[in-house]
Amino acid sequence: MKQQRLTFLHTNDSHSSFEQELRLGSLIRRRRAELRAEGVPVLLVDGGDHVDMSVLECMATDGQLNLDLHAALAYDAAGVGNNELMRFSLERVRELSLSSQVPWLLANLREQDGSLIGGMRESLLLDAGGVQVGFVGITDQVGTTYEEFVGLQNTDTVTTVREIATNLRAAGADLIVVLSHAGLNQDLALAPQWTGLVDVIVGAHTHDALHEPQLESGVWIVQAGAYARLLGELHLELDLDAPAGQKIVTATGQLLPVEADEAPDAELAAIYQLAVAHVEKKMSEVLTTLEAPLSHDRLIQELATTMREFYGVELGMMFGAVAVEGFPAGPVTVGDVLRNLQSLVNVSKIEFQGQQLLGLLYERNDPAYYARIKFGNGIRPKSGVPVGRIFFDGLTWDEQEGAITNVRVNGEPLEHDRWYTVGGGEHLAHVETLYYPSLAGAKLLHVDDYYYVKDAFVAYLRQSNVQTEQEVSS
Questions:
Q1: Closest Cα to residue 54, out of 5, 20, 88, 91?
Q2: What is the model's pLDDT at position 20?
Q3: Strands of 412-413's sheet, edge to edge?
């Protein structure tokens, strides 16, 4: 029996938690050095969603800071998550994958002609102290989302991994590891279909903290939470003489917390501070000066105006979750706007029927809708935020004791059967995203992909004077 030990250090879903990552980097270097000093080969991998464009430093560097940090830590391979794939233009995704010093692995999503995306690889074969480790990358295909909205092509995940794993075995792989950004439930469902072919799934996407490796149908599954708070370790005892799919004798693991007093890694800190200096220079531009505080409600109203003017249409509409809070009196900088309007909501042109608009006027007062906490779909912070009330520009009405009357569009009576063109955020076209029943049936006419409400508001402020509530009422 030819015995060998091997350890995987694994991370996932850091979401550009940069200051936390500096401490995580210090822990990674220390644990890798300790294990190698014991003669244990170590591979460092990431499961994806390392980027998050709601974070200023990531957005202002267009993801380059993330690449630089991964390269400095010498990751061996990285999976590709929805935040890598959905928050940049496809051209930028290609550029990032081509320039990354760490291989990006993705096999079950491709260009329309079937080729790999940019510089991505479907697989990788690495030597770890004499152990040949084959890697395959997959991601959650989110149904047909990437095919419909990004211009990519799904492949069958089960078949694709089987074929690649078979080829890697033929090339000499002792172990097959899937870097999966599909989520724990999908990983558990996929494992039985890969028994004997895949040995380990390094998971991501669902932010599950698996403090011990989970065995499903002969496949070991691990995942290390999110936001760079934990470092995963998977320790394998191998019998390299055993048949394929049976070489793991024992598998143990743990999640190490990144303690608050962990010193930041010096090299990563230097890279980060250089990026921060670059970002602050861009973020310090003063867009306007408020004579009095601007409440959250008034801000959302201004965003509705921004959307209407952006498209030059009949109405503007916006929902409260786009911004975390209002603004205090005083100067408002680019950085202030981007820190407050964290959510990633594409600017869009939508059609609503008059009867839908009337329904929304009633529903916007119902806490069952506006107070409901929203997670995901680009809404930030990721800890959740209320959906918030819907505000309009160009729509007026009288309201008394719960009754809505005298509804007008730019001074003309609302026509229930007429379709009105509205500038707003893309989420307003999807009832399943924002929950207001009267959103159902909206027609999404145009989406300015990767141009967010926050970007439009920065441009709006550069050429407009925002009125505070005090100024409006005076």
A1: 88
A2: 98
A3: 395-400, 403-409, 412-413
Q: Are 205 and 178 a contacting pair, CB within 8 Å?
A: no
What is the domain extent for residue 318? 285-473
Structure token digits, residue 421 = 């063109």
DSSP-derived secondary structure for 131-180: EEEEEEEEE--TTTHIIIII-EEE--HHHHHHHHHHHHHHTT-SEEEEEE
Q: Which two tokens stand for residue 416?
A: 């229930």
What gap in Å lies between CA 317 and CA 18, rounded to an integer? 34
The whole-number mean pLDDT for each consecutive block of 10 residues of the chain, a chain of 474 residues, reads 93 98 99 98 99 92 97 99 94 97 98 97 98 99 93 97 98 98 98 98 98 98 98 98 95 98 98 94 93 98 98 98 97 96 96 98 97 92 93 97 96 98 98 97 94 96 70 40
Predicted pLDDT of residue 227: 97
The encoded tokens of residue 113 equal: 């002609």
Count of C-beta atoms within a 10 Å radius of residue 4 = 18
Predicted confidence at residue 468, as pLDDT, reads 53
Using an 8 Å Cβ cutoff, are 174 and 132 in contact?
yes
* 248 plus 199 within the same structural domain: yes
Last residue of a domain, one of 243, 278, 313: 278
Strand-pair category, 175-181 with 200-202: parallel
Q: Could you please report the per-residue DSSP string of 92-137?
A: HHHHHHHH-SSPEE--SEEETTSPPPTT-BSEEEEEETTEEEEEEE
201 and 64 within one domain: yes
